[in-house]
Write a structure and sequence with these properties.
Layout lengths: L14 H15 L4 E2 L11 H12 L12 H15 L8 E4 L1 H13 L5 E6 L4 H8 L3 E6 L10 H7 L4 E7 L11 H12 L5 E5 L15 H4 L7 E6 L12 E4 L2 H12 L7 H12 L3 H22 L5 E2 L7 E5 L1 H4 L2 H5 L5 H12 L1 E2 L1 E2 L8 E5 L4 H18 L1
Helix pairs in contact: 2-10, 3-10, 4-5, 4-9, 6-7, 11-15, 14-15
The protein binds pyridoxal-5'-phosphate.
The site of pyridoxal-5'-phosphate has 13 residues, from helix 4.
Length: 400
């Protein structure tokens, strides 16, 4: 009889993927299902990038490439870091994988020993926790509340450090809260890390370009250049250029870490897709105007969805500074006796109600370590957002 390996104890397919599948199943028999559960832009890949991919196929760029990415794409990534982040990296400080997700997995596999700890501010993308466990490490989850803008404070960081801490894993803008760490926040965390030389930082910058206000994007290795040798900066083309399906992500780090990541990749997937790498060069080097126009579209949708959510009785939602998620506080609603009587006791039950009674798919906050909250992706058209908000409001009023 088949039994899973002990490595998989407590690890399943991500709850977000499960809810997406449940919504698709429901959509097969109902044509009015709206999904606000996806973690990807709804825009198409830009035409110039698609053409670069087609051209890569036509010119037979369809073979194995260098293990952790072509020299050409590494050069384009180095130009990106210089241009957008003011950071210089050598070619042997860049690694490319099949999405930021694989890159993160490679980092953790390549660096964690059993019992090594990774500090993860929460709410967070729970994939981090599962990956840390698969890599043999221990996640040290630090709860960050709405009062601190869902950001880790320097005091919380100092209290979470132990001799076994290997990494602090930061994600700004954040999935699911949309929280953004400004240069001043990073500088304050950097000050704590200066006294802890055994600790590195993994900076997951995948939502860098989905940032709404005028303050420039800040990342640890640029804000604290003296810490750069112990920072791994992770990014990719998925969210910035609507290229989630192409699977290209990358990291910049010290050469020893990059070399160790290459070992992991060489014995698992080998090189990222050759065609996608060519397309990614065009994304990074080609016209950048899609970034601003799509960000402006996301900003309008953010304002729309947050205003709509706050107009629903007992619902409260902060205005997120980045990413394309609203993280709505449903705790006041869940505390209502009317919901208790209907057995809607938590965020998961509320999501089931919204899916089955209102045909709106939303991810419960518990999936991110934020029970009592819901994550609504607004990577959807204005019409879909308005329609979903109407249904949620009607659905809530029907409960009260
Ligand atoms: N990091 C965060 C916080 C994410 O939300 C995601 C995708 O949902 C990723 C990384 C992975 O992106 P990709 O593997 O598509 O590059």
């Amino acid at each position: 009889e088949f039994s899973r390996s002990a490595k998989l104890n407590g690890i399943g397919v991500s709850e977000i993927i499960r809810i997406g599948a449940e919504a698709r199943n429901l959509a097969a028999s109902h044509d009015d299902v709206i999904s606000l559960s996806a973690g990807e832009p709804d825009f198409p890949t830009p035409d110039n990038v698609k053409l670069a991919g087609i051209n890569a196929i036509s010119t037979n760029q369809t073979r194995y490439t260098a293990l952790d990415g072509t020299a050409e794409l590494k050069a384009a990534i180095r130009r990106k870091f210089r241009r957008e982040n003011g950071m210089d990296y050598a070619e042997n400080e860049i690694s490319i994988g099949a999405g930021a997700k694989q890159v993160l997995f490679n980092i953790l596999m390549a660096t964690l020993n059993p019992g090594d700890e990774v500090i993860v501010p929460s709410p967070c993308w729970t994939t981090y926790l599962d990956m840390i466990r698969l890599a043999g490490g221990m996640a040290r989850v630090v709860a960050c509340s709405e009062e601190t803008g869902f950001r880790l404070s320097p005091e919380q960081l100092a209290a979470a450090l132990t001799p076994r801490t290997r990494w602090l894993l930061l994600n700004s803008p954040s999935n699911p809260t949309g929280a953004v760490y400004r240069a001043a926040h990073l500088a304050a965390l950097g000050e704590v890390l200066r006294a802890a030389p055994h600790v590195g930082v993994i900076s997951d910058d995948i939502y860098e370009h989905v940032l709404y206000d005028t303050a420039p994007f800040a990342t640890m290795a640029a804000t604290c250049p003296d810490l750069k040798p112990r920072v791994v900066t992770v990014n990719g083309v998925s969210k910035a250029y609507s290229m989630t399906g192409w699977r290209v992500g990358y990291a910049a780090a010290a050469p020893e870490i990059i070399a160790a990541m290459a070992v992991v990749q060489s014995q698992s997937s080998s090189n990222p897709c050759s065609i996608s790498q060519v397309a990614a060069i065009e994304a990074l080097d080609g016209p950048q105007d899609v970034i601003a126009s799509r960000r402006d579209a996301f900003r309008g949708r953010r304002d729309r969805i947050v205003a709509g959510l706050n107009a629903i009785p007992h619902v409260h939602c902060l205005l997120p500074d980045g990413a394309f998620y609203a993280f709505a506080d449903m705790r006041a609603l869940l505390a209502r006796p009317e919901l208790k009587r209907r057995d809607i006791a938590d965020d998961a039950a509320l999501c089931r109600y919204f899916l089955h009674e209102c045909h709106v798919a939303i991810v419960p906050g518990f999936c991110f370590g934020g029970p009592g909250y819901l994550r609504l992706s607004y990577a959807a058209s204005d019409r879909m957002i308005d329609d979903a908000l109407d249904r949620l409001k009607t659905g809530v009023n029907r409960l009260l």
